Amino acid sequence: MYNYAENSTGGARSTAQNILTYAENSHFCDCMHSDDSTNSKMGGTSLGNSLNRIYGLEITATPNPARVYVAFNYQLPDNNPESIISITDMAGKEIQHFAVSGNQGQYVWDIRNVKSGVYIYTLTSCGLQKTGKVVIN
Fold first, then answer.
1. How far apart are CA 52 and CA 107, in angstroms?
2. How many domains would you assign to the chain?
3. Does any domain span residue 8?
4. Alpha helices for 25-73 (secondary structure H)
5. Among 17, 65, 91, 135, whose CB has the most other CB atoms within 10 angstroms?
6. Longest pairwise C-alpha distance within the chain
């Protein structure tokens, strides 16, 4: 399973990583690659995370794992058009999406009728994306 999680691409990699994250509390980073010179110039942070911080794009999901609801706390870039939080299952199928606006806020997702599993949430705004995982029990 670890071989797929670390060496595969596409759906096999994602599925293996999510199973291991859920079952064994393993963590995997699919971060944007940066060479050593970029990393030292950025003070040890990845370029993608730095751009999100510069433009004000942040999202967290709590509680995680969740049983009844998930609260998405978000921060959006200034002067942003309507932004979207999309939820996809491990097969990549979108199961729900929500429009959000304003500079910051919270969207509460009722998950009482959602199957248990690992889901990917993505906040998209102004051409930027911030992605995370949420486990539903």
1. 19
2. 1
3. no
4. 36-41, 47-55
5. 17
6. 48
| Partners of 128 in beta bridges | 125
Is residue 26 one of the residues assigned to a domain? Answer: no
Question: Closest Cα partner for 35 from 51, 24, 46?
Answer: 46
Q: What is the pLDDT of residues 83-107, one digit of tens each?
A: 899 999 999 999 999 998 888 889 9
Q: What's the rounded Cα separation, in Å, for the pair 3 and 26?
A: 13
**51-71 burial by CB neighbour count: b if 16+ within 10 A, else e?**
ebeebbbebebeeeebeeebe
How many alpha carbons lie under 13 Å from residue 9 in its C-beta half-sphere? 0
Structural domain that includes position 109: 55-136
Check which CATH number belongs to the domain holding 126 and give it: 2.60.40.1930
Task: Flag the least confident range among 36-45, 87-96, 117-126.
Answer: 36-45
pTM for this entry: 0.61
pLDDT over 70, % of the chain: 72
